[in-house]
What we know:
Elements: E1 4-9, E2 13-19, E3 27-33, H1 37-50, E4 55-60, H2 70-83, E5 90-94, H3 98-108, H4 113-134
Parallel strand pairs: 1-4, 4-5
Antiparallel strand pairs: 1-2, 2-3
Helix pairs in contact: 3-4
Amino acid sequence: MEVLLGLDIGDIRIGVALIDELGVAAHPLCTLTRKNRKVDLIAISDLVSIHKVERVIIGLPISLDGSIGPQAEKIQKFAKRLAHVIDIPIEFQDERFTTAEAEEILKSLNKDTAERKELIDEVAAVIILRDYLNQGQATTATTSTDE
């Protein structure tokens, strides 16, 4: 099993999750507070190196009608830039409803508002990885950044 890094990329924060080589389960890794493009790319590149990541899975917020909206386009641009600083495959996973699902999970764990805000992006990244694995890796929403 590959080591996978999942990213839930937002305008303010990036949630990060990891699946190790055992592939047992995804777990939250950290939340990166966005600084600027260069710093964000370096932070992700460092995580890839430290954890010996073999593939990055990025949540793509596809619209309910299946189209690619402005936020998804921003994430695709970010992924293309990331591809220039890491030399491993990057794939996209449909992330519709992951934030809402993460919110429900955290509420069910009786996390207060501050704790939910702190953890929600990491939990969303875990859900992105879970969904990627559940789809058998071959049927991701959009594949690779080599377009």
